Amino acid sequence: MYTDIFKVINEQSEKTLEPYAKFSKLMTKNVETLTELQLNAMKTYSELGLSQMKAVAEVKDISSLTVFNTQQVTSLTRLSQQMMDDSNKLQQVAKEFKDDIETLTTETMKTNTPA
Description:
The protein is mainly α. Helix content is 93%, strand content 0%. Helix 1 (2-57) runs antiparallel to helix 2. The mean pLDDT is 91.
């Protein structure tokens, strides 16, 4: 008798807590992805900044200044492209998270709404 009661309580608690566990997994996955994106962006932008500092340190005369200035167009193009790529990645992560949350909400509503 008590075994059946505990079994029912266990089943009900699993059913009740399942959406919370799924939501927690989605949040964790999203935070992990965002953290990875931010770390990669920080590394890329830091490397770009350091390479610029090294390049400007090499300027010693007019000819090296001219070379440095022509390299700036390439650097700015690379920076602009990197920012666009990072923005697109962030948008994709946000869209996937929104879609996953909508799917979870729909599933939860279907299973918990009486027929």
